[in-house]
Amino acid sequence: MGELVTEKHVRYILAAEKRKDDFESVVMEHLRMNGVYWGLTTLDLLGKLDTVDVNEFVSWVMSCQHESGGFSGNIGHDPHILYTLSAVQVLALFNKLDIIDVDKVTKYIVSLQNEDGSFSGDIWGEVDTRFSYIAISCLSILHCLDKINVEKAVKYILSCKNMDGGFGCTPGGESHAGQIFCCVGALAITGSLDLVDKDLLGWWLCERQVKSGGLNGRPEKLPDVCYSWWVLSSLIMIDRVHWINKEKLIKFILNCQVVLAELLSCDFESDTENGGISDRPDDAVDIFHTYFGVAGLSLLEYPGVKPIDPAYALPVDVVDRIFFK
Q: SS3 helix, strand, coil % of the chain, rounded to 5?
């Protein structure tokens, strides 16, 4: 089994932030706020957050806030609850939550709760359990969870539970590991995990591990590094993480640092020279999978990676600072 090439991942993230005109940056322009959260959280988990300019990032984040109180994915884009949570998480990483107009952000999120307890992502009305989690997580971080109807929010999430123990994006939607994290995370934050059938859900989640050791998001799909977070965090929250083979999963994640070129001892440069983690071995790396790979290793207590909170998706020391300072 290889080792985590920490310094190369740090260089990859710092270099990605400086690239503004390449194809990957252009097509991700609208969700840069998410990318900044992924990259900075990875740096923090690796103990390297001090390598970035705090004031530059904080200034940019605040420039993405709209009069409504919500944040957009980039300057000049529309606000959305997705980017609002990422903005709050980034400010939490830098211990800058005190610069937020909490009432303004809270009113924006509260305005997105629907009569049935669900949440819309923005003014256009799309409903998804992702948005329920985001609203609950964000308001909890801001100590304003009591501003929404938590009882209705929990009831709606439970209406999205399926016979297999999993959760979908809306009532009747297919169970999916990403949605399960959102629902379990929201229930954990609201103190409602007793409403989950942990054995049934744990069985569905542990069946996501395939022969390579990686995890998939639903039956008959290929493994993907990102599910090292979505599945593992849920298993930890329901106390069933011992139902999977951790060593095989660690090996799978670490192998996603290596491209085929290196395995074949070819002469051209490999991703272990440039850093980054891909969805599967031999695929192209990106910030999204680099974050989820490192976050997965954190949940697996890999040496040299700081612990991450499975419900809030922030380093444990940051969560402790928010709630216990």
A: 55, 5, 40
